[in-house]
Amino acid sequence: MSLQAWLRTSFAALLAVFMANVAAQQPMYGAPVSVENAKKVAAAALAEARKNNFNMALAVVDPAGNLVYFERMDSVQYGSIAIAQDKARAAAQFRRSTKSVYDEVEKGGAGLRYLSLRGFVASEGGELLMQDGKVIGAIGMSGGSGAQDGQCARAGVAALK
Amino acid sequence: MKMRPMLTLEDCKKISAAAEAEAKKNSWNVCIAILDDGGHLLHLARMDGATPANARIALEKGRTAAETRRSTANWQERVQKRAELLRMPGVTPVQGGLPIVLDGTCVGAVGISGVQSHEDEQIAAAGIRALG
After folding, report:
1. Dihedral of the CA atoms B46, B47, B50, B56 (nearest 10)?
2. Three-state SS for B39?
3. Sign (positive/negative) of CA torsion A136, A92, A47, B53?
4. Which of A57, A138, B4, B92 gives A72 a disulfide partner, CB atoms 3.0 to 4.6 angstroms apart?
5. Closest-CA residue in chain A for B7?
6. Host H or E run for residue B101
7. Check: complex ipTM more than 0.85
8. Where on the phi/psi map is residue A27: left (φ > 0), alpha (ψ -120 to 50), or beta?
9. How far off is chain B from A65, nearest CA to CA, in Å?
10. DSSP symbol at B115
């Protein structure tokens, strides 16, 4: 192999590694979600819940996990008030959906480490709110099964687009 | 059996909208928290420009008013005469939290944080008035 060809190959390999790293990087934080947009997200998420006769509590938080908006449907179990907030905060603070954490834990082995890390929630229902590729907050829902919570949370996320 | 009234989500939305309108009218950015009579959060809205601390403080003022059935202004007043009350667990003795009382029964509370304490209370009162 000529030196030129070798350099070309090495450069291409390096570039590939660099690009893979960029792709694996988590999204950056953006400006916090406005209360107007938080209400829009909440309305869509709770509409999905009502359509399916789910009873849920919902929290929208800023990128640091602080509450921006909260709603609890009538007669939702008290425990869900805190869990909705926990899911939203965990999603925002770790910049990933709580479903992705649940999936890791379900695999067992190394995935179980999330159970011992402070602040993680390994239960579906916490999803990121994104704008221009940046995390502007998160939504957390609780009251149904994990899958139902996730379904409604994602309906809320879709309202931002 | 004694029956007691209960706040619905619709009631909370009414209170929150009226409180937000009162704040907007004065160009204030605040956080509005509404809780039931056990101090459980039912509704919260943090207006743009209100701080993360406002969210926490509004909730705690509301919790104090809901669980003690007294305004936080009343706590503030009493703390000034009796400093030992500062040791009361779970009490935030700063004006801006009002219990919601219907026919002599406390059904919950509103807590506001974001501007001067007496202005916070003014917003809370405007919210509760919307219940009619």
Report:
1. -10
2. coil
3. negative
4. A57
5. A74
6. strand B97-102
7. yes
8. beta
9. 9
10. S
